[in-house]
């Protein structure tokens, strides 16, 4: 482990220390090597030893980054868990005197509107998320094609002002409309911000590629639903998930608008959390903090898993990268052969690739067309 | 164009006459199409007629208005002036698309969420054809374009030429009255391009397609075209026959031919 650390530090010293060993060209080369997939850089390593050292350095740096990330998570969220479980924590001690589930049993036993707060927070965030994401997708397109400066200004306006100030401004209007201290009033105010965010978020999504896909579906006889199903939604699903999570989180974690416009009648998790903090109830504040964090973390994990699955389905697998038709394969094959690319109709083989290094060649028999090409062992 | 049955004429002869009339009726009539972006005139009074089962080639340099003309014909963008008739029916520029006209883009845009089979059968699925018919037609088409082994692959697993084949097969299976091809093989290399040209010719004959083929490659124009035209600065010039097209200096063919003759004599 010490050797690995030493190697990593040596690399860092070479890179960061001014006048350190290695020219700018070497540093730039190293930077490129770290940025590119290892298969594509195979050809640039002259010896097995250099390749091995490069892999070790990469391994060490990857582990260091992961360790730092995990440490940050443990420090912030671990403390919250300790606070929620512990009792009788006196000053010089590193940990509480007692750590068990008794505070949680007390917290959940004495519900004190917690279920109501949780369900109302969930309901509000779902409403805001769904409405703002779906409408923002359409409004983003309208804004994209809009040439008037005024609409852009209106779209960005909610970001210029603090939510609290907007809440105070909206308070008077909501009093007149009879919406103050109601769930609908708070949802509408949160929607205002989430919708503006979603509109700007989706504005950049409407690129010429989507337009062309849309025209393709139309020219092949598709209607509006077919256009959305085949041209827009497949390209937008990742952004839709990201926007839905962001807007739901905004509503879930919002305190300013709820406290101003809710008038004490709208009971959410954040309101309960701040109430516990005001009461100086450390255990309950930590417990409600954890309750506040569970849905966002779960949402992130679920969406991440869904996106990862869809990516696996739609993108080349690592094993497929070695297949002849895969562009990455062509890149790596050309990397260590330095030959021109073969006609695409031949299945994407490198024209001058010798059978000893690359099994697919221009003269390969059709039966071998789909056989794997393996990188040479150095 | 419907004619009265003459006394003494047999029904068979009337059918023959009707089919003859249909053959003489232009499938597409474009009259006085103009398009301008601000002060820049992209299309200038373009008029032509296209008969059924013909392939008209439009040769021209980049930026001369070829793509704009095809997009106008496909109904993907409106024209400033002029009218287009498909089988004597006036097409409206206000419509988002013109029925029976399929536009094939320069880039083979495949749907990434669908495999090769579903991409090829896309138009049939949209037309809600029965599953059995879809499978039969798509498999037949995949065999025709030589992609039957790749039916389960996604777009990223295909080469440029294979993608073009899929896009072309998809467009053909939509059974368009008119197929508009906008430099479809421009991204392919020499052999791939030749292979695709052969495929185009065989499918055109097999499905009796009427096409407008836009290209800036002289050789490709001569290989795939029945009728020839040249576009320059938004103006379309039509040629009566192949030899007139080849003689015109504007097409660049005489210059190229003299180059090859000179090269041959030198060697």
How many domains in all of chain B? Answer: 1
Strand neighbour order, sheet with most strands of chain B: 6-7-8-3-9-10
Query: Structural class of the secondary elements of chain B?
Result: alpha/beta
The description of the largest β-sheet of chain B is: 6 strands, mixed
For the record, the CATH architecture of the largest domain in chain A stands as Orthogonal Bundle
Number of domains of chain A: 3
Strand order in the largest sheet of chain A? 1-2
Class inferred from helices and paired strands of chain A: mainly alpha
**Total DSSP helices of chain A:** 14
Stretches of chain B where pLDDT is under 50 for at least 5 consecutive residues are: 1-12
Portion in helices of chain A = 55-70%
Mean pLDDT of chain B comes to 83
**Name of the CATH class of chain B:** Alpha Beta
How would you sum up the global shape of chain A?
A: flat
Count of strand segments of chain A: 2
Distinctive features:
heterodimer; A: 378 residues; mainly alpha; MetI-like fold; 3 domains; two-stranded antiparallel ribbon; 68% helix; B: 267 residues; alpha/beta; Rossmann fold; 6-stranded mixed sheet; 4-stranded antiparallel sheet; 10 helices; 10 strands; globular
Please render the helix and strand layout as text:
The complex is a heterodimer of chains A (378) and B (267).
Chain A lengths: L1 H15 L7 H12 L12 H38 E2 L10 E2 L2 H8 L4 H32 L3 H12 L2 H15 L5 H21 L4 H12 L4 H30 L2 H7 L6 H10 L3 H33 L12 H11 L41
Antiparallel strand pairs in A: 1-2
Helix pairs in contact in A: 1-3, 3-13, 5-8, 5-10, 5-12, 6-8, 7-11, 8-10, 8-11, 9-10, 10-13, 12-13
Chain B lengths: L10 H14 L3 E10 L2 E11 L4 E6 L5 H8 L7 E6 L2 E3 L9 E4 L11 H5 L1 H5 L4 H15 L14 H14 L4 E5 L7 H18 L3 E5 L2 H7 L2 E6 L2 E4 L3 H6 L5 H14 L1
Parallel strand pairs in B: 3-8, 3-9, 6-7, 7-8
Antiparallel strand pairs in B: 1-2, 1-4, 4-5, 9-10
Helix pairs in contact in B: 5-6, 6-7
